[in-house]
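Quick one: structure tokens for this chain, please?
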Amino acid sequence: MGLFDDLLRTAKREVNNAVNSAVNSAVNQPAEQKPAPQNNKSETLTFASVPSSLEEFKALPESDLSTPFKTAALTVLALCIYPENRELALSALQFISGPREILPSEKQFINDRFMDGKNYIPRSYFKGAVPENDYTPSQPFSITVSDNPYSYNNEGYAVLYLTSGGADNPRQVTLRHAKDGKWYLWEQMLLSGIRQPESANPWG
């Protein structure tokens, strides 16, 4: 029995050592690291001209609305049409809004912004358009759209940002992903006031 007891005690000791080793290993193992948020992603989209018809607007490669970046850039393009052709601009905005009907209040808001003589606001999102040159963009027209680590916090939505040459902070556009795989305009905050163009400065 003495030998048996010795063997039993040895076996128990080895089991306990193995358990303790496993526990200590688990405790000391560093927690699984979550991937760090990616840096902001930016895409620059370029257009040869501002479309003069809905067919021309729909024919743009970006009009496949396959990414939220494309839809955000097209929002600027549609708003740039408004001063020259209100109906075409609203039709273009409805096209990129997809199944979401643009509300009369939204149409009124857009109209009010342009009635204030702020026709230069949408073109301020083009590269090279700044107050000093009366928001005259470089050609071809380029728009840079950016996201950040929080842009996709709400499933099915993307909040992207565009920088105006007359504002200190980027303005946001919210896009919604539909069942057809396209990204549609959900909300835009691009028409807030910016610095006046130089020609409107009464002080010279």
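Residues 1-5, 22-37 have pLDDT under 50 and may be disordered.
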